[in-house]
Design goal:
Elements lengths: L4 E4 L10 H9 L2 E4 L3 E5 L2 H6 L9 E4 L2 H13 L9 E4 L2 H7 L9 E4 L4 H8 L6 E6 L6 H9 L2 E6 L1 E5 L12 E4 L2 H10 L9 E5 L1 H9 L4 E5 L7 H12 L1
Parallel strand pairs: 1-2, 1-10, 4-5, 4-7, 5-6, 7-8, 10-11, 11-12
Antiparallel strand pairs: 3-9
């Protein structure tokens, strides 16, 4: 069946000339965006109940923009004055760039990884005497604790925000040719909102192995997958699929 409509389970990109807009221009498909999950911050009281004292940490590990936002929000709610000596370890350039929303680069010690957490760990390893805080969601991946424990550093993770299932009830009678997912939480949201969902002719697109496994565990057929050597991005994977089926 020809692909005419696509639903991406994320917010619409704000950038001009986004890859999705380019995909629309080239293939003439209709693409809608809808967050299947959203983030809610944990109150400062909840963070204190986790026995986290911000004054005890000399370094912060930031793996996402959400981690940046909620670390500084909690610090403000706690009326904690962040010392200039605090070291920031950012998983990617995108996270480091976002950090500038809160701190002046030239006045802070900032270390930037290439993209993945293991790559960031090569920098953390050079600062083994620091005490690290990892502000995260309630769904901290297994690889983060494993990698930090391997290094033998002193570290603590704290739930500073939560991933929450969004209400999608208004989509109950809406059909799309392709549903695009980027996380296991997106798959969870689909079935929590629509327990009787049956795939039938709907194509499922997934990004990453953990998302693929979550989809397969729910009995879904994977039609489009990224990243792969042929399709390093989701938009490329979708475009290649459309070309193959045309």
């Amino acid at each position: 069946m020809k692909v005419k409509t696509i639903l991406v389970s994320q917010p619409e990109p704000k950038m001009e000339n986004s890859p999705y807009q380019n995909l629309v221009d080239r293939t003439k498909v209709k693409i809608d965006f809808r967050s299947f999950i959203h983030v809610e911050g944990a109150a400062a009281k909840e963070v204190r109940e986790q026995k986290i004292d911000l004054a005890k940490f000399t370094a912060i590990v930031l793996t996402s923009r959400n981690a940046v936002d909620h670390f500084f929000r909690v610090a403000e709610e706690m009326r904690f004055k962040i010392p200039e000596s605090l070291k920031y370890f950012c998983q990617s350039e995108a996270v480091a760039y976002y950090l500038q929303k809160y701190v002046v680069y030239r006045k802070r010690k900032i270390y930037v990884g290439k993209r993945t957490f293991p790559e960031l760990c090569t920098l953390i390893k050079k600062h083994k005497n620091e005490t690290f805080l990892v502000p995260s969601s309630d769904k901290l991946g297994d690889s983060t604790p494993t990698e930090l424990d391997k290094l033998g550093v002193k570290w603590t993770s704290g739930t500073f925000f939560r991933t929450v299932i969004s209400d999608l009830s208004d989509l109950a009678d809406v059909k799309y040719d392709v549903l695009v997912f980027f996380s296991p939480s997106g798959i969870e949201s689909l079935f929590q909102n629509f327990p009787k969902f049956t795939q039938e002719q709907t194509r499922i697109a997934v990004f990453g192995n953990t998302t693929m496994k979550a989809a397969q565990d729910k009995g879904l057929r994977i039609d489009i997958q990224a990243p792969t050597p042929e399709s390093p991005s989701m938009t490329m994977a979708i475009e290649n699929y459309i070309k193959d089926k045309s």
